Amino acid sequence: MRATLPLLRLLLAVTSCMALADASSPVGNWMNISDKTKKAEAVIQIWEEKGELHGKLTKLLDSKDTLCTSCKDERKNKPLIGLEIIWGVKKDGDIWSGGKILDPDSGDIYSVKMELADGGQKLKVRGFMGFSLLGRTQTWVREQ
């Protein structure tokens, strides 16, 4: 029993560190909250690949559209589920920027900045054209 206690402490310390690491990165699953309706619309999975963040739609919550009919490039009429909507985002201090985000509703592609808030439980996602002042921000909530 005494030998088990140090092992349990070590396991607790490692899992606590893993939870903290997750909270310091946008990697994970996020519920997209509309800045217009304030309702959850979709779940987006964000992952890191070769030092860049990417994101894809994994679940639609209230949409009747299943295809990206508004997309203007090779994504046109592709299924929304599994569609990569975030790419090329790199860490820049406390924010992630330099990449692009697709708005499947309009088919428009914007520059994107992302910043964690509330201890990593929220992600502020700002899509913009040209200057960051000319855009809109959504707050996404981390799925547990």
TrEMBL record:
The keyword Signal applies. Gene3D superfamilies: 2.40.128.520. Residues 28-142 form the DUF2147 domain. InterPro entries: DUF2147. The keyword DNA repair does not apply. Residues 1-21 form the signal peptide. Keywords: Signal. This is DUF2147 domain-containing protein.
